[in-house]
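Hypothesis: this fold can be encoded by more than one sequence.
Test: take the structure tokens below, design a sequence, compare later.
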């Protein structure tokens, strides 16, 4: 299981994730990344690791990538949703019909978006968290925004710490990635 948090700043987005993986009754800390840079995006994913691995090697047509915020919204709703749906179908065939789904956090420049397994897509104003520890982290992100004057990395670390202490499927080391605002 996992917890991925993202915090927006004026110039970019910080994503941070734990390093715990689970399988059946086993828990282990791994160096498997849960956050990928898929130009021009930074994408964090919870759910099937294979889904994220396959998503990370997609060859996005550089000519069709968004350059403006409105183009980004259109790209996500039309092109990206179609790519993800096709990938779900392909992986479900590979897994013998087992449903393959995952939640995504997508950073583009200084914008942050959540992409749900049903292809629901929305923009996030401040911060968001996904995964088995997501609800714990969201509580911390909300509180830190309201009552504390913390840098994005400190907010992300506090949120992951909350998830690690309250959810037994979140743990290990944390790692951080910043979006690129070009």
């Amino acid at each position: 299981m996992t917890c991925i948090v993202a915090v927006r700043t004026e110039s970019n987005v910080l994503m941070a994730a734990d390093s715990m993986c689970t399988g059946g009754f086993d828990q282990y800390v791994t160096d498997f990344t849960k956050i990928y840079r898929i130009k021009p995006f930074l994408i964090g994913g919870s759910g099937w690791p294979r889904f994220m691995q396959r998503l990370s090697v997609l060859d996005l047509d550089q000519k069709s990538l968004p350059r403006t915020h409105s183009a980004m919204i259109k790209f996500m709703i039309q092109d990206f949703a179609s790519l993800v749906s096709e990938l779900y179908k392909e992986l479900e065939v590979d897994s013998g019909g087992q449903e393959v789904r995952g939640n995504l956090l997508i950073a583009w420049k200084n914008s942050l978006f959540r992409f749900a397994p049903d292809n629901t897509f929305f923009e996030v104003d401040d911060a968001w968290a996904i995964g088995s520890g997501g609800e714990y982290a969201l509580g911390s992100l909300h509180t830190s925004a309201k009552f504390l004057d913390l840098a994005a990395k400190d907010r992300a670390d506090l949120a992951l710490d909350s998830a690690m202490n309250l959810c037994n499927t979140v743990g290990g080391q944390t790692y951080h990635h910043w979006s690129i605002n070009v």
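The first strand starts at residue 3 and ends at 8. The chain has a mean pLDDT of 87.
Hypothesis status: open.
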